[in-house]
Each structure stands twice: as structure tokens, then as C-alpha cells.
Specification:
5-stranded mixed β-sheet, single chain, D-Maltodextrin-Binding Protein, domain 2, 8 helices, 2 domains, alpha/beta
Length: 230
């Protein structure tokens, strides 16, 4: 394992610290009850979305939180940078790391990965008959699998934001993106056509971390599980 060259916000060596990777954004507030039930109290900056800090101390010297982009959480856990991660099932399906497993669905961050298109195309009888389609999405692998299952080749335009603009600007006629209320689609003249998968936030671990640090990780997982049932 490559040795870190900077220190975490704890005086303990890395091998004695449990690092938990969590995604930025709205999920942070939903995580608070889980942390409280597990006896974890992050420093105040953790819940400040304007903070430039990336790693955060907790009331436990042996537990540190890192806050990163949702698509990066599985990578941090898979490659040993974090011991536990909180990741959406949509992200896990996109990357499909062999050495990760997700033992617990937290029941928060619920949304769906959906195919959408301009409202004007919704009733086009030929819309589903193309053998080759161009799709704007952040979820390239999941999108290709979805269309391949229908015998359609998907050419994906990888976008990390403002995906709803793609049909308006002529990049494509279809997008695949996360949908919660559907308000963003409606505001941009799009209609949800089909749900590809339902998604929620899950706890993830690497098989190596579970095997080597089970005694340290188990109490945290039990606390998360108890909180998710409330």
C-alpha cells in the first residue's frame, strides 16, 4: 500500500484510523441521524458545503470523515483510501468494482436513474425503433447496458452537469440522468420515458478492509443499521 504523505486530522497512524468516505451534496443532512446513532459527531465544518476542507475530525480520534464527489466514493474505498463509503446504488452499478460489497441499504437519498426526452417526442411511434441512438449522460456504462438489453447501440456523450440542456442544444434527443421530483426535467421541456433503476444510498466496504479490520468496522455498521431502521 502506498504510504500517505500528508496527515489526517488525527494523531493516530493511518492503520489505526477508520476513514469513512461520504458524497457531497444533499445527502449530508440525511446522514446526520446515522452518525448520531453510531456515536459519531463530525466537526462543524463537515456540514458546511462552502468549506474547502476535504477531511474532517470527529469526536472519536480513530474515525475520520472525508467528503468527495459521489462518483469518487467507490474508488476511494476500492483502492484503500477509505475503509467505509456511503454511495448511491446508481454509482455502484456504474462502476461495478469486483472487490466492493454493500451490506446495508440506508434507505436515504432515494431517486431513480431514468431515460428522458423532449416532450414533443414522447408520442412519436418511431422513437423506440432506432438501432443506434445518441444519449447524453453521466452514467455511460449503465446507459450502454440498458440500450444493449434492447438490442440498441448507444453512443454516449459524457456530461457531468447540465445534462438537460443537451437535447435543447442539439447534442442528442435522449438523456439518462438521476430524477427525484422530475421538476428539473419539466422546467427544461423534457419528459421521463422509462425508469432504468431505483437508487438509494448504501454502505460499501472493500473485502480486504472487512477481512483485516472487522473488529473496528462492525460497531459502526451496526450503528448505521440501527439508525436506518428508525
Amino acid at each position: 500500500m502506498i504510504q500517505p504523505v500528508t496527515s489526517l486530522p488525527t494523531s493516530l497512524p493511518r492503520e489505526e484510523v477508520t476513514v469513512i468516505a461520504v458524497p457531497k451534496g444533499r445527502i449530508l443532512k440525511e446522514l446526520l441521524p446515522l452518525f448520531e446513532h453510531s456515536g459519531l459527531q463530525p466537526e462543524d465544518d463537515f456540514f458546511d458545503e462552502d468549506s474547502r476542507k476535504l477531511s474532517f475530525a470527529t469526536n472519536r480520534e480513530d474515525v475520520v470523515l472525508i467528503r468527495t464527489r459521489s462518483f469518487d466514493v467507490p474508488s476511494f474505498v476500492s483502492f484503500g483510501g477509505a475503509d467505509i463509503g456511503i454511495s448511491g446504488s446508481d454509482v455502484l452499478a456504474e462502476f461495478n468494482y469486483d472487490n466492493l460489497f454493500s451490506p446495508l441499504d440506508l434507505g436515504i437519498g432515494k431517486c431513480r436513474l431514468s431515460l428522458a426526452a423532449p416532450v414533443a417526442l414522447a408520442d412519436d411511434a418511431n422513437f423506440w425503433n432506432d438501432s443506434h441512438v445518441r444519449v447524453a449522460t453521466k452514467y455511460v456504462n449503465s446507459t450502454r447496458r440498458f440500450f444493449a438489453g434492447r438490442g440498441v447501440q448507444a453512443e454516449c456523450i459524457k456530461l457531468n452537469g447540465a445534462i438537460e440542456l443537451a437535447p435543447t442544444l442539439g447534442l442528442c434527443r435522449r438523456i439518462v440522468d438521476l430524477v427525484s421530483s422530475g421538476a428539473t426535467l419539466k422546467a427544461n421541456g423534457l419528459k421521463e420515458m422509462e425508469v432504468i433503476m431505483e437508487a438509494s444510498s448504501r454502505v460499501i466496504l472493500s473485502r480486504v478492509a472487512w477481512k483485516t479490520r472487522m473488529e473496528a468496522l462492525r460497531p459502526l455498521l451496526e450503528g448505521f443499521e440501527a439508525a436506518s431502521r428508525k
